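name: query_chain
kind: protein
chains: 1
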Amino acid sequence: MSWTNNQMADEIIALFPKGSSVNLGIGIPTLIADRITPDMEIMIHSENGVLGVDGRPSAKTVSATLINAGKETISVRPGCSFFDSATSFGMIRGGHIDFCVLGGMEVDGQRNLANWMIPGKKVTGMGGAMDLVHGAKTVIVMMAHKNKEGSSKLLKECTLPLTGMNVVDLVITELGIFKPQNGNFTIKKLAPGISKEQLSNQAELFQK
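structure:
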């Protein structure tokens, strides 16, 4: 069995110490906000200028003026704060964000990340990812293990334009948790029923 997206989110949440500051990238990382409980005292940061993002709003509480960096409507926790983009990126670049969780197109064994464009396709921009991968204390990539063509997104060397070099600390996919280092991936944990041989057609990349 592979993990669901919610189970992947729970695996990541288990890595956060109480009181951490966390930035969540566009896509499946936003599921994490829905599953963090108030007792964890996690402060979720969004680079458009919010600290204290909560889960998705209900139909009764939704407001078009409350959005995250991906333009999704959000709710906020008591004690949240709002600020301009310069302050927000000052927090990121100043090393004040404990964790960022980003989506990914490719990650390689040298800790490189590609997550912002595919040549020949429409490009909406890198957003804050370039700053986050260098400013956050821990960078986690949450993504599907394979692309739409069925090829592994964990590679010996990225083929797409890079977001950052030597920046990824952990990768979580539906198959497990992996640490890129020294050109390979160390298996930290596998989803129930998943074996090393099922990871990709490049099993030599993965070390237990």
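note: The mean pLDDT is 93.
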